[in-house]
């Protein structure tokens, strides 16, 4: 069973690979993370921003839309929190960031 720490490691590894220019390797890590947690909106958001940085606008739009869809139920909780080391600190901030990113891609 995959733990949240291992999932966080996949995300950090993806970001590190992206920073080092290993685009296929970074994408593989994001995909592995999403395979393990397919209903995690933050993973789709993270991969969407990766796609945006890699100039893959169509893929970014798909991931941002999916992240927003998955975030919707979490917006019902005013103080919904994500893990403290996660790139996003709050659900509402994430929602606003993703909506803005998606709007800028249209």
Break the fold down into its secondary structure elements and pairings.
Elements: H1 4-19, H2 23-36, H3 41-53, H4 57-71, H5 91-105
Helix pairs in contact: 1-2, 2-3, 3-4, 4-5
InterPro entries: TPR-like_helical_dom_sf
Protein name: TPR repeat-containing protein
Rg over CA atoms, rounded to whole Å, is 13 Å
CATH C-level name: Mainly Alpha
Q: Mean of residue pLDDT? A: 83
How many discrete domains? 1
The total count of helices amounts to 5
User: Which word captures the global form?
Assistant: globular
Percent of residues in beta strands:
under 5%
Unreliable stretches (pLDDT < 50, length at least 5) are none
Describe the structure.
The chain has helices at about 5-20, 25-35, 40-55, 55-70, 90-105. It has five helices and no strands. Helix 4 (about 55-70) packs antiparallel against helix 5 (about 90-105). The protein has one domain: Serine Threonine Protein Phosphatase 5, Tetratricopeptide repeat (Alpha Horseshoe). The protein is mainly alpha-helical. InterPro entries: TPR-like_helical_dom_sf.
């Amino acid at each position: 069973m995959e733990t949240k720490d291992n999932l966080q490691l996949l995300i950090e590894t993806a970001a590190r690979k992206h920073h080092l220019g290993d685009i296929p390797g970074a994408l593989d890590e994001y995909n592995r993370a999403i395979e393990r947690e397919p209903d995690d909106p933050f993973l789709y958001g993270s991969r969407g921003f990766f796609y945006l940085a890699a100039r893959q606008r169509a893929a970014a739009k798909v991931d941002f839309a999916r992240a927003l869809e998955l975030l919707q139920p979490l917006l019902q909780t005013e103080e919904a929190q994500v893990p403290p080391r996660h790139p996003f600190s709050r659900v509402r901030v994430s929602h606003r960031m993703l909506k803005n990113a998606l709007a800028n891609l249209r």
